[in-house]
Amino acid sequence: MASMSTEKATSSLSFLSTPQWKYDVFLSFRGEDTLYSFKDHLYDALKQKDIFTFKDDGKLETVQLIAPERLKAIEESRFVIVIFSKNYASSTRCVDEVAKVTRCMKETGMTIVPIFYNVDPSNVREQIGTFAKDFVEHEEHFKENIEKVQTWRAALREVANLDGWHLQNE
């Protein structure tokens, strides 16, 4: 009888020590800017190091809205790499992802690493250049729900202020 309760306790403890993450890394990127370039090289490098990474490759990216599968994959990831590119903020799916990862960072301690791919980090932080244009369009499209756009703006600023990498390829 004592061994049975010890077995149950050990089983419970092993459940607690089981990693809660399904993915090591979730890649957030704007497909048209990075689909067959930097993002693929990064994904391959992570895979070679046996780092289990979620990337969409366009299967779930056909609509502007964020698919439930992506939300779940974000929640099940330990790290998120956000690849900011020139047209990143033009996609409501991308800005929804950033809003979701900032919530996860606060709730679960998720680590977010921004990469500024051919875009100046200050453009993202200050939302100037293409980011300004994209947010003017979002504000027009979501004028009935301007709080959503404000959430996106705040999330982009928050992630853009984290330590990351600035890569210029042009």
TrEMBL record:
A biological-process GO annotation: signal transduction
SMART domains: TIR
Gene3D superfamilies: Toll/interleukin-1 receptor homology (TIR) domain
Keywords for this protein: NAD
Location of the TIR domain: 21-170
Protein name: TIR domain-containing protein
A Pfam entry, by short name: TIR
